[in-house]
Amino acid sequence: MRVRVISRINAALAALLALVLILLAIVLLGGNKVLPWKTPAEKRVDAFGDVQAAATRSVLAFLDVDYQHMDDKAMTMESLSTGPFKKEYAATAVELKAAAQRAKAVSTGDIRYVGVNSLAGSTAKALVAADAVVENTATKGQKATRACPHDGARCHQYRFVVTMQRTGGTWKLADLAGAS
């Protein structure tokens, strides 16, 4: 009888040890992402990353113009924005579409850098450096240069101060201003 009890205790200890080793392996492989808690510093780092990603998406959508798909571009931009910026963008969307179609404009953005400058509550400010390659009827004759290695296009460098607002658990573009 005593041998059976010791066998059961040994089996239970072996199972417990196996479970601990499996959990340790999961934590070592998955890092802090698999733990059920986060420190305040980890939460702040995650929030900065979320703002950075949302600012990147928003500025890319803002710079993304294709005269053949302006309705889709406008819907995307409006879905990524909130507050006064969303209202201003919606108010100018018809004019923007008409101008893009007249000029047969296509613009593609590239984000160089996004730095979150401040984050307090549900508002964040970020600095965004972006480039855009713009093609339209006025750029057809442009030759590639060192500054703009694209035939038939102009290259622009932008620096924006972006205000992001958290609404419904998502960061959205609340303001976009040029920076010098």
Your description of this structure?
The chain is of the alpha+beta class and 180 residues long. It has 4 helices and 5 strands. It has helices spanning 2-30, 40-63, 70-79, 83-103, and strands at 65-66, 106-120, 123-135, 154-167, 170-178. Strand 2 (106-120) and strand 3 form a beta hairpin. The radius of gyration is 26 Å and the shape is elongated. The N and C termini lie far apart (84 Å). The mean pLDDT is 91.
- Major sheet description: 5 strands, antiparallel
Fraction of residues in helix: 40-55%
Report the uncertain regions.
none
Terminal CA distance: 84 Å
- In spatial order, strands of the major sheet run 1-2-3-4-5
| Helix/strand/pairing category | alpha+beta
Assembly type: single chain
Total strands: the figure is 5
